[in-house]
């Protein structure tokens, strides 16, 4: 199997040097940095710098975003009509009753069989 050089490939996994699209470091070194090292370097340079979407939001803001996302997803749902709902419910109830009867029959048969064998 051949190894790909996609976004998840790392130099440790055989990604050829320079194939990950990383140029030399800003201070002129020819060494390429991994994503983790670049992140650490940015964090060390910028300190408390927050970027747009990635900025940490407060607890209530995150809860509000969460509920807005829930509402947005619920609007995408295709709700069944009343007739479809009744039909689906009937299918489920009939299936459950059928399985109950099968289990009851097998239980009764095994009980009588064990009574006949062990007396």
From TrEMBL:
Keywords assigned: Cell membrane, Membrane, Protein transport, Translocation, Transmembrane, Transmembrane helix, Transport
Question: Which InterPro entries does this entry report, sorted A to Z?
Answer: SecE_bac, SecE_sf, Translocase_SecE/Sec61-g
Renumbered to this chain, region (Disordered) spans 1-54
Quote the Gene3D superfamilies the UniProt record gives: Preprotein translocase secy subunit
Q: Where in the cell is it found?
A: Cell membrane; Membrane
**Topological relation to the membrane, as annotated:** Single-pass membrane protein
Polar residues bias spans: 1-13
Bilayer-crossing regions: 85-106
What broad class describes the main subcellular location of this protein? membrane
Protein family membership:
Belongs to the SecE/SEC61-gamma family.
Q: How does this protein assemble?
A: Component of the Sec protein translocase complex. Heterotrimer consisting of SecY, SecE and SecG subunits. The heterotrimers can form oligomers, although 1 heterotrimer is thought to be able to translocate proteins. Interacts with the ribosome. Interacts with SecDF, and other proteins may be involved. Interacts with SecA.
Its biological purpose is as follows: Essential subunit of the Sec protein translocation channel SecYEG. Clamps together the 2 halves of SecY. May contact the channel plug during translocation.
What is the protein's given name?
A: Protein translocase subunit SecE
What organism is listed for this UniProt entry?
Answer: Kitasatospora paranensis
